[in-house]
Amino acid sequence: MGGPGSSPCASCKLLRRRCAKDCIFAPYFPPDDPHKFAIVHKVFGASNVSKMLQELPVHQRADAVNSLVFEANARVRDPVYGCVGAISYLQNQVSQLQMQLAVAQAEILCIQMQHEPTLQSHHQVLELDQDHKALLLNNNNNINNCGNNNNNNNLGYAMSAGQFNSNFASPSSIMQMQMQMQMQDPLKQESLWT
Amino acid sequence: MNPTKRCAACKYLRRRCPKDCIFSPYFPPTDPDKFACVHRIYGAGNVSKMLQQIPVQARAEAVESLCFEAKCRVEDPVYGCVGIISLLQTQIQKTQSQIAQTQAEITIAQTQSSQFM
Where is the LOB domain (chain B) (predicted)? Predict the structure, then answer.
């Protein structure tokens, strides 16, 4: 915390001002990590960050700061796409994995049907619908194309991959879609910040 | 300069819109909310600086991504678009686990099938 006799926080050091006791930045920008504030200030600006923090309850400010730092780092690494490059990359990964899952589920369905001879008779022939047939036919191609796009917390690759679709759905619609598929799992992970 | 032909940014900032205004190609006057949102999160000066550091052919994409992130931040002031990234990563882990489970079931079913043959 800032105040008489104590070291100014990283923000006040950078802004070259007195660090007040109630400095809004001090809890989140300690003096031993000047880069953290520098990057946030570069992308968002100190006054914008201050306004954003003031509009939040105190218990949410640490997470807000961490997410701002994350976004600022992403924007500095990739000035054109920022975090959006990572989102695009991850969405592609989700699509590919869902396709893989559909293929695997179609395959198990096929195997299960082969083991149920009572379902087949001279008069009833069970056929896969067109979607499942197509998926089975394309099975090997799709799985092979997934490649080594492993999910990890290092989004450096994601930034440079930058598969960008300029026709974005709105953020709220993307979040709603993801939340429905999420099935009410915890939305936020501490590990994202590490 | 005809004041009615100002871009959304210059209208918002209440200033003259020069011929070489850095904002005008990307913030048409027909969509004032776009600039308002970006200005609220990043500030006009920071957006201008960022655009100046990017080649002209990439600026449209940069503006779109900035607008998207700003919208995310307005809708979720704590996590912004990082919340979406977190959701996607969780979804990826879940789907990978489902794939592994299904593939294990396939292996078991195939083994059982070959035993009966």
Answer: 5-106
Question: Can you give the pTM of this predicted structure?
Answer: 0.75
Measured in whole angstroms, the distance separating CA B24 from the mean position of its chain's CA atoms is 20
Chain B environment of A187 (Cβ under 8 Å): 83, 86-87, 90
Inter-chain residue contact B89 with A188, CB threshold 8 Å: no
- Name which of A95, A86, A96 is nearest A158 in CA terms: A86
Q: Is B95 helix (H, G, I), strand (E, B) or coil?
A: helix
Is the Cα torsion angle B113, B114, B116, B117 positive or negative in sign? positive
Residue B5: pLDDT band with limits 50, 70, 90? confident
* Residue listed under structure tokens 């893989």: A100
The pLDDT tens digits for A3-27 are: 455 789 999 999 999 999 999 999 9
ipTM, 2 dp: 0.89
> A5: distance to nearest CA of chain B, Å?
32
What residue in A sits closest to B108 (Cα-Cα)? Answer: A108
